[in-house]
C-alpha cells in the first residue's frame, strides 16, 4: 500500500547541522585523560534512563504525543524538562513530527522514513528544513492540545527550552565538581568535572540521540512484525534493549496509545515498568491498556498474541 518515499531535497538548517557535527567532533576527547573514565557505562546507562527513557520515551512520546497515561502536572513538567535536556528539539516540534509520522508512516510526507535511504531516516531529516514545521497551521492541526498548555507555550517562546539545556550542563558540572572536591580535593574536582563533561553530557547526548534515531531507522527496516500495520515498522530487539522499550515499534504502530510497547511476555519494556511503579505509588493514572484493532491482527510473520485482541 505504501507509495515510494524519496528524501526530499530540502535546505540544511545551519544551526542544527553545526550542533550535530559539533557534538560528534567532540566525542574523541572522551577517550583521553582527564576525560576518560572506566565508569563510562554508568554515565551512559543512568544518563539514558533519566534523559532518554524518562525524558523522551515517557514524557515526549508516551505522555505528550500519545496521552498513554496521566501524571500530576508538576511531575509532567519535570519529565518534560528531562526530555528537553536530551536536545532532541523542543516538545512542540518533536510531538508534531511524531504525530505526522504515525499518520503517514512510510508513505509520502513521512518526515523520516528510511524506506529508500537509511541515513535520511536515521538523522538526515533532522538538520534539513521541513517547511511544514515553520507553519502554525501545522501545529494547529497536529498539536492543538499542546498549544493550550501555558507552560509548554512559554517554554517554546524565544527558545527558552535551550536555556534549560544549557542550565542542566551547568548543574551537572557543578555537581561533579562539588562531589569531586569533597572526595579528593582540587585534583579530583578537575577530573570529575572533565569526566562529567565528556561522558555525562557530550557522549550521553550523542548516545541518546542515536538510540532514539534507531527507532525511526532500524525499527522501520529490521526485525519482525506482530501485526499487519501497513507500514514498515518492526519489532527490533536490540533497539528495544538500548532504548528501554521503544524498539517494539511494530507493536507501537499497531496500538499507538498503549502505554506498554511490549506485547509478549518476553518483549521487555523498562519504560513501562517505570510507569507501573509510578502507578503503584499513585503518580500515574488512566494508563492506557493494549488494544489492537482487529484489522491489524493479521501478520505475515506469525499469529498475533490472542490476549491483545480488541
Ligand atoms: Zn515508526
Ligand atoms: Zn509514537
Notes on the protein architecture:
The chain is mainly α. It has one domain (14-308). It is built from 12 helices and no strands. It has helices spanning 14-26, 40-65, 73-84, 91-103, 118-124, 136-142, 144-147, 150-156, 160-216, 237-243, 249-254, 270-280. Residues 303-310 have low confidence and may be disordered. One zinc ion binds at residues 101, 105, 220, 233, 249, 253. One zinc ion (ZN) binds next to α11.
How many DSSP H or I helices? 12
Number of β-strand runs: 0
Whole-number total of structural domains: 1
Helical percent range?
Answer: 40-55%
Query: How can the largest sheet be summarized?
Result: none
Low-confidence parts, pLDDT < 50 over ≥5 residues? 303-310
Strand content: under 5%
Written as H for each helix and E for each strand, in order along the chain, the element string is HHHHHHHHHHHH
Net shape: globular
Output mean pLDDT: 92
Instruction: List each distinct ligand once.
Output: zinc ion
The first-to-last residue Cα distance is 24 Å
Overall radius of gyration: 20 Å
* Class by alpha and beta content: mainly alpha
Amino acid at each position: 500500500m505504501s507509495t515510494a518515499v524519496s528524501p526530499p531535497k530540502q535546505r540544511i538548517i545551519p544551526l542544527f547541522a553545526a550542533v550535530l557535527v559539533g557534538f560528534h567532533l567532540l566525542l574523541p576527547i572522551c577517550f583521553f585523560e582527564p576525560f576518560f573514565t572506566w565508569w563510562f557505562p554508568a554515565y551512559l546507562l543512568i544518563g539514558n534512563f533519566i534523559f532518554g527513557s524518562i525524558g523522551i520515551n515517557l514524557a515526549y512520546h508516551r505522555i505528550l504525543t500519545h496521552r498513554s497515561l496521566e501524571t500530576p502536572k508538576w511531575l509532567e513538567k519535570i519529565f518534560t524538562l528531562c526530555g528537553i535536556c536530551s536536545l532532541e528539539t523542543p516538545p512542540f516540534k518533536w510531538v508534531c513530527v511524531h504525530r505526522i509520522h504515525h499518520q503517514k508512516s512510510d508513505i509520502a510526507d513521512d518526515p523520516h522514513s528510511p524506506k529508500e535511504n537509511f541515513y535520511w531516516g536515521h538523522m538526515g531529516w533532522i538538520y534539513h528544513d521541513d517547511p511544514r514545521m515553520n507553519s502554525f497551521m501545522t501545529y494547529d492541526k497536529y498539536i492543538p492540545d499542546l498549544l493550550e498548555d501555558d507552560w509548554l507555550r512559554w517554554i517554546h517562546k524565544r527558545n527558552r527550552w535551550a536555556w534549560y539545556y544549557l542550565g542542566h550542563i551547568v548543574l551537572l558540572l557543578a555537581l561533579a565538581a562539588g562531589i569531586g572536591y569533597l572526595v579528593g580535593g582540587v585534583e579530583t574536582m578537575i577530573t570529575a568535572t572533565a569526566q562529567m563533561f565528556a561522558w555525562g553530557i557530550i557522549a550521553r547526548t550523542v548516545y541518546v540521540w542515536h538510540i532514539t534515531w534507531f527507532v525511526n531507522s532500524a525499527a522501520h527496516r529490521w526485525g519482525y512484525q506482530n501485526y499487519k500495520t501497513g507500514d514498515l515498522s518492526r519489532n527490533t530487539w536490540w533497539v528495544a534493549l538500548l532504548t528501554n522499550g521503544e524498539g517494539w515499534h511494530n507493536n507501537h504502530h499497531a496500538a499507538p496509545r498503549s502505554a506498554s510497547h511490549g506485547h509478549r511476555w518476553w518483549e521487555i519494556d523498562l519504560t513501562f515498568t517505570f510507569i507501573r511503579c509510578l502507578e503503584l505509588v499513585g503518580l500515574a493514572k488512566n494508563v492506557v491498556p493494549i488494544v489492537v484493532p482487529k484489522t491489524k491482527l493479521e501478520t505475515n510473520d506469525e499469529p498475533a498474541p490472542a490476549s491483545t485482541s480488541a
